[in-house]
């Protein structure tokens, strides 16, 4: 290749490079100018107007239903199960015979002991008379006296054993599903049946010890259960524990629940709400209006401008994030205080698309139509 051709080729390549970089530079400049002039379309949101209200402080906790009287009926002595005198799930009365163990051998021992007692009584009376005339020694009379007392005690012990073999209901209540069958050999402490008094139940729950000044004996407690959605039950506080749990720093509370309707069973979990006498002036907002964060809770409020959107249908608002404190909850609302005032326009949707100074439009009518359609 000649020198002239080489120079021409190099010049051509340089020209192409200059043109390419020049085009890119012009292109980037145009893009930058466009971006500088670009304004994102306003975000469509729904809102509510903030207003003040007075809420009674409400304590809420998870409670457990406990029987006022409940026990697993067990035998106190060993024996073979001779008869079952109840049906699973039925109501029984205090003192009613539930289980009879085979006491035939013990009954025979009782008869033998009674015969021995009769002989001891005769021997004691005879020796007592002989002692009056000094025909026997005092030690002979003492032995007869001791033998008589021993035989009486033996009979009393056997009668107690026989009574233990007839297992009775310690209190009135409802029995569960029996865990034994005829012919089983039962031992002391073996579970036979669960007996629960279901007419009156306890609702046990815990609450932080800081709430102790808000709790009062006899105060009404509202009880709710997922098993009875939409229903509210009433109980009354009958006991507040005298010690705070060292690990959780909670205090235990017990409320009395009338269960004459038979709605609840021991072991069920319920939601407990206690309305205290403490009143707080707050601003109630829908829960969806609050953005919850480890760094603090907040809401977006809006300031109206004179500008309208491209279609001229809505005014443009400017969003501002404000820090708030959530004082309490009630149903689907949060009672808040902090950097928010009555009359503020508070955003209730699309907060994830907002930041400070973001431009928004308020379209509450569209929200209502959407909700109606759903």
Automatic annotation (TrEMBL):
Pfam families: Beta-barrel_RND_2, BSH_RND, HH_MFP_RND. It comes from the Bacteria. Residues 205-277 form the CusB-like beta-barrel domain. Residues 106-163 form the Multidrug resistance protein MdtA-like alpha-helical hairpin domain. Residues 71-191 form the Multidrug resistance protein MdtA-like barrel-sandwich hybrid domain. Signal peptide: none annotated. InterPro entries: Beta-barrel_RND_2 (IPR058792), MdtA-like_BSH (IPR058625), MdtA-like_HH (IPR058624), RND_pump_MFP (IPR006143). PANTHER family: BLL4320 PROTEIN, MULTIDRUG RESISTANCE PROTEIN MDTA. Belongs to the membrane fusion protein (MFP) (TC 8.A.1) family. This is Multidrug resistance protein MdtE. It comes from Sinobacterium norvegicum. The gene is mdtE_2.
């Amino acid at each position: 290749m000649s020198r002239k051709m080489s120079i021409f080729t190099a010049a051509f390549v340089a020209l192409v490079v200059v043109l390419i970089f020049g085009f890119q530079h012009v292109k980037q400049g145009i893009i930058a100018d466009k971006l500088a002039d670009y304004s994102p379309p306003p975000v469509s949101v729904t809102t509510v107007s903030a207003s003040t209200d007075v809420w009674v402080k409400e304590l809420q906790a998870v409670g457990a239903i406990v029987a006022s009287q409940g026990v697993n009926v067990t035998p106190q002595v060993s024996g073979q199960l001779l008869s079952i005198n109840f049906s699973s799930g039925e109501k029984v009365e205090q003192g009613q015979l539930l289980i009879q163990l085979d006491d035939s051998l013990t009954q025979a021992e009782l008869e033998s002991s009674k015969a021995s007692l009769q002989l001891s009584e005769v021997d004691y009376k005879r020796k007592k008379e002989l002692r009056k005339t000094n025909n026997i020694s005092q030690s002979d009379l003492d032995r007869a006296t001791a033998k008589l007392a021993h035989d009486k005690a033996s009979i009393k012990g056997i009668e107690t054993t026989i009574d233990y073999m007839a297992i009775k209901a310690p209190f009135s209540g409802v029995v569960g599903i029996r865990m034994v069958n005829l012919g089983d050999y039962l031992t002391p402490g073996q579970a036979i049946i669960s007996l629960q008094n279901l007419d009156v139940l306890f609702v046990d729950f815990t609450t932080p010890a800081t709430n102790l000044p808000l709790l009062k004996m006899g105060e009404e407690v509202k009880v709710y259960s997922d098993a009875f959605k939409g229903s509210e039950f009433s109980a009354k506080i009958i006991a507040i524990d005298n010690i705070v749990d060292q690990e959780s720093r909670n205090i235990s509370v017990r409320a009395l629940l009338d269960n004459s309707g038979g709605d609840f069973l021991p072991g069920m979990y319920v939601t407990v709400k206690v309305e205290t006498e403490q009143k707080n002036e707050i601003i109630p907002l829908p829960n969806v209006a609050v953005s919850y964060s480890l760094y603090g809770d907040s809401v977006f409020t809006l300031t109206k401008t004179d500008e309208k959107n491209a279609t001229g249908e809505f005014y443009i608002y400017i969003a501002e994030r404000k820090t708030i404190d959530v004082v309490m909850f009630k149903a689907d609302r949060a009672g808040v205080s902090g950097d928010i005032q009555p009359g503020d326009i508070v955003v209730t949707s699309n907060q994830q698309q907002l930041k400070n100074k973001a431009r928004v439009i308020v379209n509450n009518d569209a929200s209502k139509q959407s909700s109606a359609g759903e």
